[in-house]
Amino acid sequence: MALKLTKFDVSEFKTKHFAGKDERAGLVFMARTAETAERYEDMCKIMRDLVLHTGKINVELTVEERNLLSVAYKNVIGSRRAAWRTLNAGVDEGKFDDLVVAYRKQVEAELSEVCLDVLDLLENTLVKQTVTENEARVFYLKMTGDYYRYLAEFVTDKSYEQKAAEFYKQAQEISLRVLDPTHPIRLGLALNYSVCFYEILKDKKAACELAKSAFDQAISGLDKLPEASYKDSTLIMQLLRDNLTLWTSESNSGGNEDDENDDGMTVQDVQNDDD
User: Fold this and answer.
1) Residues whose CB falls within 8 Å of the CB of residue 122, separated by 6 or more in sequence, listed in order
2) What is the mean pLDDT of residues 118-133?
3) Is 35 in the same domain as 116?
């Protein structure tokens, strides 16, 4: 008998176990529990239900809820992106190459499903809810740009590239107005937007200029950096500097057009801030 694992059904679980409980609080508790258990696909389903629930009553997510959403999809998409990159480099003109290609297409279908699922939540609920220029709106616009960029990594559809650039640009314009240069979300946005310029839009000059500007502005504001965000901000600054070092060395040596150099270093990004 073939292995058949039960799929977690949020609606069924709520019907059986949520009687007399606050639905929003219960969903947040279940999301935390799923995270602790490293059941990230279940966590995505729970957070989708929470987003739709808050959308119906027109209430924005709290910072904790927003970060739970990010963590859930980050872990689900992250493992599949890593798998795709491995499989994409695995075809070596052997007799089983067609099997690798078929397997890679399966991973691509899963990547598309995850990206389109979270983009549906972002564009149809979360971005629409946050009309004020604030941290939350930057967060959601950045996250939307991220998932369009992930699609653009393996789908030959220029519209995904354009949408990634468009949402990053919107987020960047707002972040420059409302967030400090050392804010982790502003820094994370600059990092990912610069990676989009480098990897997807193939504009290396813009990638370097954006990364350098974000790093330099953050350095000048380090003395005002709140202790609570010091670790996150300095980590992202290190990634910005690492990318600048890599990109500059490639330019000086006439490096290849890929996102990986001869030493196996890769361009780095972050997904969403989990603090």
Assistant:
1) 140, 143, 144, 147
2) 94
3) yes
